[in-house]
Amino acid sequence: MGKGVHFYQRIDRHNHLPPGREKELEQAIRKAVKGLMKQTKIRIDSSHFHVIGSLEDKNRRQLASSVREEISKIEGIRWHAHQYFIPVSSLSPRYVSRLLEDIHKEPLI
């Protein structure tokens, strides 16, 4: 069984995803993670996306290159050069929902 991981990628210069392109991006991500990541949860926001799931350490580099390759095929969107892997302690739906909610919470300061 792999470890829980949060993969994050944003659009270059914090630009926004053109309207109506979410489905195309989700399909590209699903194609990229197929066979590499299990218990996958994908969240697409206007300037970035999150993929949370179970991943073997040996597949980390392959997942990053596969995602980069698939999303680069989407025309008109320029992606930031870096992707981020952050370990997560659980893949339960409640934990993942709360994690994504906390990440997108507006700062109170």
Written overview of the protein:
- This protein is of the alpha+beta class and 109 residues long.
- It has three helices and four strands.
- It has a four-stranded antiparallel sheet, covered by helices on one side.
In terms of topology, how is this protein built?
Elements: E1 3-11, H1 22-33, E2 37-44, E3 48-55, H2 60-72, E4 79-87, H3 93-103
Antiparallel strand pairs: 1-3, 1-4, 2-3
Helix pairs in contact: 1-2
Q: How many distinct helices?
A: 3
Rg over alpha carbons: 14 Å
Strand order of the biggest β-sheet: 2-3-1-4
DSSP helix fraction:
25-40%
Largest sheet: 4 strands, antiparallel
What portion of the residues fall into strands of 2 or more residues? Answer: 25-35%
Strand elements, count:
4
SSE-based structural type = alpha+beta
H and E order: EHEEHEH
Q: What is the 3D form? A: globular
Mean pLDDT: 93
Q: Termini separation (Å)?
A: 40 Å
List keywords for this structure.
109 residues; 3 helices; single chain; 4 strands; four-stranded antiparallel beta sheet
Short description:
This protein has helices at residues 22-33, 60-72, 93-103, and strands spanning 3-11, 37-44, 48-55, 79-87.
